Each structure stands twice: as C-alpha cells, then as structure tokens.
DNA sequence: TATTGTTATACTCTATAACTATA
DNA sequence: TATAGTTATAGAGTATAACAATA
C-alpha cells in the first residue's frame, strides 16, 4: 500500500495510454488494426522471423497470430516461407507492398505521435533514453527468461 | 527518418509491452479482462464517475463501455446511479464487492509486476518519476484538448 | 516427449453509426 | 443543437485447448 513504485507504474501506464491515444488515430487511419500494425512494425527492417519469434515480440499468442498473419497475407503485406532447417516452422516476412506500407505508415504514425517531442533538446532526449533504457532492462529482467539461442542461421 | 525521438518511442513501446506482459498474467488470473481491469483500477479510490469520464480515462469508447460496464454489473462489481443534476448521465462506482476486488486484485497485479523494482533506490525512483512526469506532460499536451470543467458537484 | 503452427470454440473488444432522452 | 448513453452490426482480437507434423 502506497509503495514507491506505484507512482512510477501509474505514470508509465498514463504515458502508455496517452501515447496509444496519440498513435492509435494514425494507426486506424492506415486501415490496419493495432495488432496488424504491430506485426508490420515488428517485421519492418528485418529479414523476417518465425511465428514463434513474432509472437514473443508482439505479445500475440500463436492461435491469434495465425488469424492476424492470414489477414495480412490476404492484404498482400506479408508472405510465409517454410523454414528449411525446421520444417515445422514458417518464416514470415514483409512483401514488397508490405515494405511500402511499413515505409509509409510507420513513419506517419511515429512522426505524428512524435510531434509532441518538438521542443525536446538533445539533453532531454539523452535523459529520456537513459531512463527508459534502464526501465526497460528492469522490466525485461522480470520476464520469464526465454533466451532461445537459435543455432540455425 | 532516423529522427531522434524514434529511439525514445521504441523504448517506450518496449516498456509498455514488457509491462503488459508482466501484469497481463496477473490480470487474467483475476478473471477480469484487460478492459474490465482497466475500469476497476480507474474506479478504485474514487467516489465514481460518469461513462464519459471513464471513457476518457480508459480509452474505451462509449459503445464498448456499455458492454464492459454491463458485464461488470452482472459480476456485481460496479453499480450505476442516475446523475441527479444531469439526467442523461450515469454515475458508475464500485460496489462493496468491487472494492474488495480492487483491493485484492489491484495490489496483486501491481505488486507482482512491481517486483522488478526491488533494487531501485529512492534516487532511481525520483529520477524515473521526474522523467516520466515530463514525458506524460509532453504526451498529454499533444492530445486534442478537452478540459471539461464540470460544475455539478 | 517437446515444439511449431493449425483449428475450433466461445467470448470480448473494437469502430462506426443511427438512435433516445435529456440539456 | 449538442451531449450522454444505448443499440446494432460486422469484424477482429483473446484465451484456451485439442490436434498434426516435425524435432
């Protein structure tokens, strides 16, 4: 009760919420759902990854993922390819059009929600990055570890 | 492209995601959905509020809110009361059982996800709070303003 | 036996818009 | 006219668990 971290957690939640309110508008405008945008943003600038990895990064469980990827595939934004070295697994990657979408929608969402930082100085950013990095490390350390050092690439 | 705030936004998103992964487990365990927990947490330690206010605070749109509140009402966790001074409006508040739920589930969720802060010093908290407060202010300033100074209480 | 992804179920959330009743 | 909340609709996400193929 009244423990110190409550205030930080609440602030974090408020930042999360505020940021989602800001960016959500632009995500919706792109015709993508939140989950779909999440996938596109996660696949952007990567050679692709497995369902497993995508699920881990986006918090979308595998059952749901099948549906989300399916819809993105129907939109022609992602494509799947059997993983040669583990035939149970797929490799999901952005198609050319998916990359175009990533390159237009992502900056738009990020850019518009990023407007609020207009008055931030380099110093402000440095401090924010440092603090958020530490926070991230602390939060990630609390997750149930699953390093999963792959040995197939 | 490569703008400075991208890193901060990504860190914030990662913190959000990590935190949701941490807390989500405990929220689910409580038998509440994310949206329901959001409502309970928002109503906790308040005398109650209108649908409008609840919607503003939780990002749940009014159409959805009707359903969420309905389910919480069926569970006996919240109750509604006509607002005397504006008969279009309801006052939603936690029931006794809702308060019990808030008092058990909220600290459990918060407490468990808060474990990760075990090693934080007072200084760490102070810095985190300061930075997050500033971030929140910046983010909130970017929202479409809706002060809504009520005059009926 | 464990893991990757699929399928099925039942429910909840979501956006949107038309609607009512109050203001 | 504008606002608070309701209803309806169609689609999407969610948890969960049983399942197939592969490891």
Automatic annotation (TrEMBL), chains A, B:
GO MF annotations in UniProt: DNA binding; DNA-binding transcription factor activity
Entry-linked InterPro entries: HTH_MarR-typ, Tscrpt_reg_MarR-type_CS, WH-like_DNA-bd_sf, WH_DNA-bd_sf
Keyword Glycosyltransferase part of the UniProt annotation: no
Domain HTH marR-type: 2-137
Keyword rRNA-binding carried by entry: no
Source taxon at top rank: Bacteria
Keywords, sorted A to Z: DNA-binding, Transcription, Transcription regulation
Pfam families assigned to the protein according to its UniProt record, in alphabetical order: MarR
SMART domains: HTH_MARR
Protein name: MarR family transcriptional regulator
